[in-house]
Amino acid sequence: MNVHPRSLSLILLASVAATAYAQPATPLPTDKDVSDSYIYLLSRLLVLNQEQADFANGFQWNQLVHRKVGEVDWPNPNLDVAYSEAWVAIDEKSCALVTVPKVKGRYYTVQFLNGWGETLANINERVYPQHPDGEFAVCLDGAQVQLPAATQRVDVSAKALRVLSRVELGANPDEAVALQKKFNIRASGHPALPEVPKTVRFDIEKLPGVEAFESATAALDSAADTNPGMDKLQASTRAVAKAIEDPAARQHVAQVIQQQAIPAIYKASPTLGDGTVKDGWALPTTIGVYGNNWLLRTLVNLGGIWANSYEEVIYYKAFVGPSGKPLNGDHSYALRFEKDQMPTLFATYFWSVIAVDSVHRRVLPNPQKRYLLSNFSPLKFDKDGSLTLYFGATPNGAPESNWIPTPKGTGYSLTFRFYRPKGAVADRSYFPPALKER
Is residue 323 packed enough to be buried (19+ CB in 10 Å), middle (13-18) or exposed (0-12)? Predict the structure, then answer.
């Protein structure tokens, strides 16, 4: 067949145009890149989600908010302590001045975290045994700032910081609250106040989809991830954010998020990623400071944001019962400690176990208003010196003082905390006993 040269040119142009139309303008990242980038980015978005909520609720930079006992609004809170919270801004010319009262015989700390939920510093008697209280200055690394005399300098690597101070309630909560109100934070000068990034807002019951990547540039630009080995993930996340400008790529990325990334998060949750599981309790490989374990960081920010470092507290998580099915208020469980394995042996200050729902990670409402048990609870010990704790919709014959109500039909998880761990908990060889179904 003879084809006129002009007709052949038109056919070739049409073919090129059709091919260009059919292919995304930007090469698609692989599905694994999309999934990994989403999980990586979610860690930062969870912090930003809370930051935006805090400022919407009246937070001001460099002002400590003293919370009433039990009135904190984030996943998996510890109701054994009086919390105070702040967002702090520092720069090359201004530090955050922190006043810490004298605290004797009870746990306390002032924790500073960066925009990824990583613990940068703690102020307490463990870290500063020669200066456990008084005046501190939290400063940017290398900042040249004149500080008042007798001030302990604390260097950190971020200009915007999330702060939590904790004071153990102990046997005298009123005394703890009085101490809590003596903690104070103020700026030493006039720091440049960061703009709170406007990123995707969401309820953790329904994680964001492809729209998460619309916030990627703002999220990554507003807080450096200084952990080693993150450059590739950062580049991949930015590449996905660029790719979704093409409608075909956006649709594919949305599918990968729903079909691969989010299921991967929930699949990894019961084991805390690469954590160790024994007798139904999961122990993370690290906590508070994550290094290259970006999956664990996201899991922790999702399930219990603002985790502290393992020198301060070690957390064990239980998601399933003896049958391997998720914990649920339709069942009753018992947790028995033998006389020579009491949890008090492994905590310098206190231990506690709390139940939170499996969706929002909030404490379980109940008429008794009992949300946790600890060594400060009026526990009843068995005649042989053992201790049994109970979880269920009713006490079912158990001492009520040893029982956490878990309403019927409610899925939940347990968190066991050891504050200032010691012994077998500190060396990570200990696990709480297995739950038994009653």
Answer: exposed
119-123/134-140 β-pairing: unpaired
Distances (CA, A) of 335 to 128, 398, 424: 37, 12, 19
Q: Which residues, at least 6 apart from 165, have a Cβ–Cβ distance to it below 8 Å?
A: 64, 83, 84, 85, 108, 109, 110, 111, 180, 183
The confidence score (pLDDT) of residue 27 equals: 61
Question: Tell me: the pLDDT tens digits for 163-219?
Answer: 999 999 999 999 999 999 999 999 999 999 999 999 999 999 999 999 999 999 999
Chain mean pLDDT for the chain: 93
Cβ-contact 92, 143 below 8 angstroms: yes
The identity of residue 309, as a single letter, is: S
Q: Residue 317 pairs with which residues in a beta bridge?
A: 282, 415
Mean of the pLDDT values across residues 75-90? 94
C-alpha span between 401 and 43 (Å, rounded)? 38
Q: Which of 181, 394, 415 is nearest to 287 (CA)?
A: 415
Burial 182-193 (b: 16+ CB within 10 A, else e): ebbbebbeebee
pLDDT > 70 fraction of the chain, expressed in percent and rounded: 94
Average pLDDT, integer, range 107-118: 98
The closest alpha carbon to 216, from 248, 232, 180, 240, belongs to 240
> Tell me, what's the pLDDT at 77?
87
Classified as helix, coil or strand, 42 is helix
Tokens of 45: 């978005």
Q: Are 338 and 345 in contact (CB under 8 A)?
A: no
d(CA 158, CA 114): 6
